[in-house]
Each structure stands twice: as C-alpha cells, then as structure tokens.
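Notes, Module 5: Reading structure tokens.

Key idea: the token line is not a picture. It is a compressed description, and you learn to read it the same way you learned to read a sequence, by spotting repeated patterns. We will look at two proteins. The first is printed below with its tokens.
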Amino acid sequence: MKKVLFICVHNSARSQMAEAFLKKYGAEYYTVESAGIEAGELNPYVVQVLKEDEEIDISNNETKSAMDFYKHGKLFQYVVTLCDESSERCPIFPGIRERLIMNFKDPATFTGTEDEILNQVRELKNHMKKDIHLFIDLEVNGKLRENMPSNWKIS
C-alpha cells in the first residue's frame, strides 16, 4: 500500500475531502491522511455536502498539522498539495523532494447566500472527486507522469 498525504492551509476542507474520496475509492491501493499548514476547524459546508451528496461523514474528523506528521517521522510516497495558486501559496511538507500540486479553490473564500455557498462547495466536490478518480487510475496504471492533466504539476 502506498501512503498519501493531502495538505492544504488549515485541513478544514480541501484536504479533508481529498482524504475522504481516496479512502472511499482507493482503499485497496492507498493509506491516506490529511493535514494543514496549521490545524483549523472543519468547514461546515464541506461536512454537509459530503454527507448529503456522498454519504461520507467527516463531522468527527480532527484537523491536523503537517508538522506533527513530520515531527513523528512519517513518510509518504505521495504528498499532494491542494491549493488555489491564484490566491495563496501552496503548502510544503519538509523532507520531500517533490510534491504533486492540484489546484482547487478554497471553500473558505466562497461568498453569497448559504445556498450559493453550498452550490460552490458541490462544484468543488464534483471537480475533486473526478480528479481523485483520475489520480487513482493514472497512478495504479503507472501513467501518472506522462498523462498528468495540465492543471496538475510536480514541484
């Protein structure tokens, strides 16, 4: 089993969603965890959308700091940063030579009415679910580097 760590800013939305999807759809291939540059609080809109749309309950998940994984010497085959490069710096995980970067908007920046925010989270969820399925397919078949979508990059 390959070990995967998803990182975002606060481990409150994007990394939690990615972890949940990889656990649901790639459990036979991967062990997966998620963290943030610093621990935050779970995004209630993400919790709601995952529960109602995907029957995934992350409401009892704790947010974690990536430095805690580093301090405990945890190693991962894949460290995947989830960021919106247009508005934030992608987080890093010390001690790795390269990371896979997937760009997703931060739900903490979504604005509008509650329904509008929920719809934006649903769009994000659909996009992320598609990308996690693609990651599994490409990685399991050894074609990740040569068939990586243009909106992903290795840094």
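Here is the second protein, with the sequence above and the tokens below, as before.
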Amino acid sequence: MHEVILPKLGQTMEEGTIVEWLKKEGDPVSEGDVLFEVESDKAVLEVEARADGILRKILVGEGVEIPVLTPVGIIAGPDEDISGAVEGEEEEEAPEEPSAPEAEEEEAAPEAAAEVPAREGRLFASPRARKTAREHDVELRLLEGSGPSGRIIEQDVLDYLERQPAATPLARRVAREKGIALEEISPAGRRIRAEEVAARKARPERVPATAVPSEVPMPPMEGDIEPLSGMRSIIAERMAASAHTTAPITLQSVVDATEFVALRNKLKEALADDLGFSVGYHDLLVAIVARCLKEFPYMNVRLEEEGIRHLEQINVGLAVDTDRGLLVPVIDDADQKSIKEIARESRELIERALEGRSLPDELTGGTFTITNLGMFGIDSFTPIINMPECAILGVGRIRPEPAVVDGEIAIRQRMWLSLTVDHRLVDGAPGARFLQAVARYIESPYLLLS
C-alpha cells in the first residue's frame, strides 16, 4: 500500500488546492502517471504517482485547499486491505473493468453541444482515448465511438480535435465553463488563449440547465462579496507587505527609443527563421537590465537580517498578466545569455505562465523585475517592488513625439521608464545613475555589442 500525499512543490508552498483528479478510484496506476493537478500559490502543477497499483481511494476531493504533506489518496493492490488507512470508510473493491469506469458527471462542452448530444449512462472508451481526451480537455460524452459496440477509440478523439480551432487547454476549459464557442473567436496568435475567451461575453442559452454552480462560476453581481482567496490573496498579501516594509522611491525618465525600435525591427527580420517568432522589446530590456546590474552591482542586492546581501547571480523576472493573476517568471543568469537565448527562454516561460503550467523554480530566485504596461497605453506609473528584491523597472508605451534633435524639430520614438528602488538599500543618486545607464543602452542599443 502506498499513501499519496500533497507534495511541497516549492520553497514558499504551504498549502494547495486539488484542481482535478486525472485518475479515478479503481483506475490502474503506474509509477510516473499523472494522478491529479494541484493549484499552488504560483501555478497549476501536475502530481505523478510514485508507485504501481490501483487508485483504491481518493481521500481529498477537487476544490479543497489543504496543507502540504496531507494524504490525498491510496494506491494499493486489488485485494490489499486498506481499511487501516481509511478511518470510517469501508474497503471498496476495484471495478472489474478498470479501462471503462463510470464516466464522471461533467457538463458538455458548449462549443460542441449543438453538434452531438451528450450521452447518458455508462460510457465505454479505450484507455488511450481517455488519456488523449484528458490531455486535450475533451468531454468524451460528446463523441460518437467508431469502435466495437460504439466504444470510443483514440482516433475518435483525434478526429474531434481536428475539427476544433487551435486553443490552449486552459482556454478550452474557460470556454466550457463560460458557455462560449471557440469557433467564434479569432485568435491574435497561433492558438486561442484563455484571456481571449474570458474577454468574450458568454451566451446564456449555451450554459446547460443542469450545470452545477461550482462547475460554472457565475460573475459576481452588484452587492456580492467575492472572497479574497487563492492567487488574489497571495498577491494582496505580498503587495501590502512590500508597500509597508520597503521605503520605496520612484525615479522617472523619458528616453529616446528611436534606435531601440530600429534594432528590434532588424532583429525581428534577422532572427525570424532561426527562432520561428519575433524578438520582443522585453527581450532587449532583459539584456539591457542584466548588463546594467553587472555594471552597478549595488542594485543586485537584498536585505536580510544580517545586513545587505550582494547576490552572485543576475536573474531578471518579467511580470506577466495571467488569468490567475500576476506571475513573474525568472530568466536565470540573464547577463550570461545572448539576446537570442533570452528570447527563446522568455517565450517559453511566458507561455507556460499564461497557461498556468509554470514550474515552481521558474517563478523564484529573481534579483530584479521588469514590468511593462506600455501595451495598455500607459506612459508612466509607480511599480511596487517584488520583495525581497531591491528594485523594479516599470516600462511605459513607445510612441512618436516631436523632439528637438541637433537644433531641429524631428519625430522621435519616446518611452517612459519608472524605476522604484528600496531606499533602505539604495539612495536616490545611485538609483538615478542606474536608470541613466538603462536609458543610455535604450538610446544607443548597439552598445550591447561592446
């Protein structure tokens, strides 16, 4: 018998919420199989089985928040006595057909509800079909099986997916919960993302009448109180701690970003075939900040009980707005990486953060953070320090403005920078020198080659 526990998936994780069990009671389990998804204070992560056997008992259901190291299930042999591990519960026998257990009662995916009526009663599907359906968040009750006696096989799932628009798993789940048809959404990129689904207004007639409120969350009405929990609670706690603990001072500067924009456009064209995507402004900013942190090591510090610790690594975090709240994936050793390496890594980290699949190590260890609100038309703002870091750089939008160049008026690309530093660690003048250096590289980005 093996006891499944909620693992500690990061240094800061103290509790977690089981989002979904991917194995049901009675399912055969092999070491390495994904048992369930858990939501930590940073991301949604998969937990794998560490033993072979049958999932005999689920001790903690979905949506329950529990401390780490809490037992959540039991894996054992089909005839093994587990009564001693389950207080107040009678031993249950494993089903005779583990490959075709009773299907869980879930609502039909809205985008396909009009095409195929949801099946009722027992559902028969091959193990490979179930696995593929779980991986792509497909409701098996919507499919017509082409196997013997109407059994659903893997090819049925694959054929269904081919008929659907490309979307992230989280986007599919949000669409199903909100009652939105994915085919009605035109994605900005290669795949429909969750935020694009969330921005659409759900059509009430697509929400099944039998939907359980906990499965299809309704938007809060006027006068309702929305609990401060989950990721929102973590963000509130940390931002309040930063505002009340640090001694923040924000320095602002407007810089000429004409050459910065030109370089980015050249890199987009030069590296497009190699990378398969466009280099972003944030990639160049990571390289610039990393260079400046190396030149001004007093900015790469943190305050500890013993005093000011000077950090060896330069790890730059990028603030990312996700469906779950603000996440900061970190590019480790950014000062030792080329722009192309930074671009590849930042793209992977940002995509995983948006899909809620960030690993704990990807969201910790930062020594400096960049936050960009320019895409929302914001010029300048006062960013809050991501503790225990010393400073954070806020980036505003880039826009053409008239400027005096060599005594003549010309149209130049202008960008606002807002640097918030902890005055306990860095005074205003040293902070200003750091911001001057960042501005110098933005105005003459080719200095990065020196």
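Summary for the second protein:
- The two ends are 62 Å apart (CA to CA).
- The chain has nine helices and 18 strands.
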